[in-house]
Amino acid sequence: MSIANIEVPPRTLIVVAGEGNADTLPLAKRLREAGLSSICMSNCHTQMEHVHQLKPDLILLDAEIADEYYCRTDGRMHRDIPAIHIVSPDPASWTKAFAAGAVDCITKPVVTEELLARVRLQLQRRDVQKLPHASMAAVSAS
Fold it and tell me: Lower Cβ count inside 10 Å, N or C end of the chain?
């Protein structure tokens, strides 16, 4: 499978987590249209119950619920599963997101091309981190 001509593993799963379906459904739809599996979770209770079972590759997390999300998971989630926070354009939102453990941020309203580029980058980073050290040396030498 590929996203904008970049190969992505076929079982890539992205969780779109937000305050309600009005925000999460359109983002999940954009990801599915690009060939990625995605599901929506519109409340923290549902997210916490299912995220560890699903083992997604990435979480798109609305910054408005990030405090509650990380508080309820004792901060574990950002170490186990990378999260891109969806933030407002003001610098304080970005600062807060990165302090909470976001690996990246994207501003509202979300532009599809930017969303896909940021998702692709995080999936590539994840794949590189999974490589054994010997394989990484071979990749960097090529």
Answer: C
